[in-house]
Structures are given as structure tokens and as C-alpha cells.
Amino acid sequence: SAVISQKPSRDICQRGTSLTIQCQVDSQVTMMFWYRQQPGQSLTLIATANQGSEATYESGFVIDKFPISRPNLTFSTLTVSNMSPEDSSIYLCSVVSLVVGYTFGSGTRLTVV
Amino acid sequence: GQQLNQSPQSMFIQEGEDVSMNCTSSSIFNTWLWYKQDPGEGPVLLIALYKAGELTSNGRLTAQFGITRKDSFLNISASIPSDVGIYFCAGQLRALQGSQGNLIFGKGTKLSVKP
What we know:
The structure holds 2 protein chains of 2 kinds. Chain A is 0% helix and 53% strand. Chain A is built from no helices and 11 strands. By secondary structure, chain B is mainly β. Chain B is globular and about 40 Å long. In chain B, 38% of the residues are buried. Classes of the chains: A mainly beta, B mainly beta. Chains A and B meet through strand 5, strand 9 and strand 10 of A and strand 4, strand 5, strand 9 and strand 10 of B.
């Protein structure tokens, strides 16, 4: 499977600020996704990160709040903008390809105070 | 939207016992996956199922993809303390249903093992 490096692993942020999370994969992958896992909950897809074009967002998630970049086939960023305590969650990067299957990063644990 | 109904929500078992959990859905899935998540970590893939009726083992773990592609179970035999964690089922919808490769997750089964 692919090795995914996700940074930062955790952060405590002030309300109203923004945090950018990075996801680096050790091989080129077809598809990259960003998920959110609220405390004690399951994983919910935020968006599909498309290489070279705008991300595809799921219902309930918008680009202004969660801007995503994917400049190449091994890297993506998710920004959580204008944070509030309700944004406190684990944010996970995931990749899919025929070679590596379905793999998750170890997540970014975000606490907004 | 599509949902995966995972049960049980939690289990408290004695070391050495066998465990069984399952997921059902009204939707047909192309792929079915079982993950385990330890505290502070991302989900780790345990077993991937691609064919209807497929039965796959990974050590003490066995999973099957239902014939209708709408359900799956995961069994853990002879549980040990390190089996503790949250187990998630996840499915990828069939291509005709607009799947782009993203997964839909069940709500998880929290497993506790008493030594």
C-alpha cells in the first residue's frame, strides 16, 4: 500500500483562524479524498481532490470553508478556514489507486478554542 | 443518501472469544472494505472484498461480501487484547451510481477485549 504523510498530526487553533493540512503520498495515485471524523463519529467525505481542476465537494461542504489544492498526483492540501469550535475533528487524507488500493493517512487532530 | 448500517455499535468480550460484526445497506456496492482504527490513528485496511460472495481471510480475520452486494460480515477468531479498537465497514458504490472511488462508512463497532 501507499505511504501517506499527513501534516500536522495535531494542532490547537484559535477561533477565526485558518489551518492548512498537507497530504504527501510516496507514489502517484489516481484519486485523493479528504474526510472528516467528528469526535466519536464515523468518517464523512468532504471532497474529492482533483488534479489540475477544482475539487468536487459533497453536500454540506463548500469551497470557501474547505479550499483544496492538488497540484500533482502525489500531493494535496486541505484548508479549514475561519475556524469555529464545531470544526474540531480529525481530518483524514485518503488515496485510491489500482496499485495501492484504499489507504488513509494517520489524520490531523484539530482542536479549535 | 446511501447508508451503511453497522452492528453492533459496541462489544465487550473475553479474550479468546470469537467476534462477529456486520454491515447492511439498501444500495449495491462495487467494493466492500473493513478497516480498524486505533486511537489517534487513521483507519487501517484489514480486508477488501471485490466479488459478490467472496470470502477472504487475513490471519484471524474473515470477511464475506454478500451475494446481493448489499451486505458483509467480519469475523475475528480467538480475540486478543490488541484487537481492541473501532472497526468500520466501508463501501464503494457501483460505477452506475456515480461512484468516483470515494467510500461510504458505517458508524463503527467499538470492540473491547477483557484479558
